[in-house]
Amino acid sequence: MVVPSLKLQDLIEEIRGAKTQAQEREVIQKECAHIRASFRDGDPVHRHRQLAKLLYVHMLGYPAHFGQMECLKLIASSRFTDKRVGYLGAMLLLDERHDAHLLITNSIKNDLSQGIQPVQGLALCTLSTMGSAEMCRDLAPEVEKLLLQPSPYVRKKAILTAVHMIRKVPELSSVFLPPCAQLLHERHHGILLGTITLITELCERSPAALRHFRKVQILRLLRILGRNHEDSSETMNDLLAQVATNTDTSRNAGNAVLFETVLTIMDIRSAAGLRVLAVNILGRFLLNSDRNIRYVALTSLLRLVQSDHSAVQRHRPTVVECLRETDASLSRRALELSLALVNSSNVRAMMQELQAFLESCPPDLRADCASGILLAAERFAPTKRWHIDTILHVLTTAGTHVRDDAVANLTQLIGGAQELHAYSVRRLYNALAENISQQPLVQVAAWCIGEYGDLLLAGNCEEIEPLQVDEEEVLALLEKVLQSHMSLPATRGYALTALMKLSTRLCGDNNRIRQVVSIYGSCLDVELQQRAVEYDTLFRKYDHMRAAILEKMPLVERDGPQADEEAKESKEAAQLSEAAPVPTEPQASQLLDLLDLLDGTSGDVQHPPPLDPSPGGALVHLLDLPCAPPSPAPIPDLKVFEREGVQLNLSFIRPPENPALLLITVTATNFSEGDVTHFICQAAVPKAPLRLKLRLTYNHFHQSVQEIFEVNNLPVESWQ
């Protein structure tokens, strides 16, 4: 018995009623067999019903390619019900990869010329969906005629089809350029919206169209028309100011218009007052109850903060309030904008707000917040003591979320601030006594106690409350760190070294320290064991050298490599300009060797007798040589970042006239198919050599990307 074919509604109910995927496949296979049989029999009455069922099967992900030719037959039919299903099938089953799509060109041309609006609409929708370049070239004249038809229904679809044609074949811009001027006078909002889209495509793909529409005053076009064009931007200023001040924001449509206005002001060469007005509009958006509007405002202000920093600064209190948002995306954007607003004048107030946010922010934001606070403090710290207090607060609050270089930075900062050694060691001792779970804090505290333990016991720091600490308490605290299960091997290494250094700074007996050191001589951690064995050997065999070996670290200068080079140059210039002492004979001989090298003589040349050691002798002759400085050696480029086709490279140049100056150029390249927008690259040079910190923020593939990383592998030629 042959099972009859199902109707579309019955097929949908039976497929939805299938309890397993196997049952669903069985139903679809049976019905596809009926559909194939009907196509073979050539039933013209029910062909559109069979194709409709096949399209539903195709939407579920099952193969339906055998219905392509049936689409062509239905499109060629004179019945509207057939054409409707046929055009729908063509949009779903045909594309440029199949040659069959070219077979409907003549049918579409005939339907566009019939004058029946529903049929013309079907043909235009199909052409704008799957029309290839060849079809666009063949049917462009028909679409051009429909752009000026009386019916708004047909004109709206013809405009959107023209947009598709220009995207496929940009040289067709000359065909659709003349009707645009007339379409701009339409009152139908759908036609106006489509015309704006069409003109936008024309301007982006045709320089002639861009010149043609320079004077057109349409809001959504102004961004393109005024970009990098001074005269057009000046003409637009008054119009944009009127739109920005007269738009009603009681409805969301008004907010959308204002946002478009702000984007246009940001992209063209607008007047300074107009840009301030745009920033103020975004500031009002921050007070809106709609979260989406607040998010858009934060994102836009983040783009403007580099070019209009002072205008954005006026809304700093509102931005800080957004840190308390419960929505994670809003608080993240507010954090990024708050960090970008930090400067030398507001660093104290902003750090208080950011530190308060750090204590209560979600865990996934703590790393970014801590890193941003440390970078801002390193860049804008008003005093060394404030800088130390800020880093200590971050380590105490979110020590497990800070970057690995935080310990080295703080120890270097404390080491270079001799006047704050006593203050720092007491602050760190108190913090360590309260909490030993934050490993970076414990490491810095152990290092500081080992270096300046004598100042801790002296108790002569007037900047904080008096603290009476004896030697046993200090040793017990370090032993507690060594024995804690929370301590990392590196942390135990810091504590063991601190105990060893205290053996030369404390006045009591060192037997307790020696016992602890000997215990860790059999530790399972190889590095800690080696360190303990070496310290024990220092006690037993080289005790007379222990005080010299374990003396305090020298003061560390934090002026950076460039200042070091300048100081070195000034020192050498001072040495050369001052009166030189009378050189001895070996010095004269060395000068002669240098002269021989400059003259390019061979090694067999005999030296003349020593010169007269007088102020007009060898040194003066050497300085009078017309010797040009050697050209700086080329420095290789360095790739520092790559993610999903986005690449960041550094190139280095030393100007010949100033070899001590190093110019670093950052080049960002996008090798992917997706656009990169809202790209922001922020660089910070810490006050220590061989490091560069970069922060990238951009949108790629409709996703927000933020990367913070450190470049510590700069070429040797860049710093030597």
UniProtKB/TrEMBL annotation:
- Domain named GAE: which ranges? 633-720
Indicate the principal place this protein occupies in or around the cell.
Answer: membrane
Q: What is the native source organism of this protein?
A: Pongo abelii
What would be one Gene Ontology cellular-component term for the protein? AP-1 adaptor complex
- Which parts of the sequence are annotated with region: Disordered? 560-585
This protein is called what?
AP-1 complex subunit gamma
Provide the protein's localization: Cytoplasmic vesicle membrane; Endomembrane system; Golgi apparatus
SMART domains, alphabetized: Alpha_adaptinC2 (SM00809)
**Where exactly are the transmembrane stretches of this chain?**
none
Entry keywords, A to Z:
Cytoplasmic vesicle, Golgi apparatus, Membrane, Protein transport, Transport
Q: Which InterPro entries match?
A: Adaptor_Complx_Large_Subunit, AP1_complex_gsu, ARM-like, ARM-type_fold, Clathrin/coatomer_adapt-like_N, Clathrin_a/b/g-adaptin_app_Ig, Clathrin_app_Ig-like_sf, GAE_dom
Q: Which domain of life is it from?
A: Eukaryota
The family note in this entry says: Belongs to the adaptor complexes large subunit family.
- Listed SUPFAM superfamilies: ARM repeat, Clathrin adaptor appendage domain
Kindly give the membrane topology term recorded for this protein.
Answer: Peripheral membrane protein
What does the entry give for GO biological process? Answer: intracellular protein transport; vesicle-mediated transport
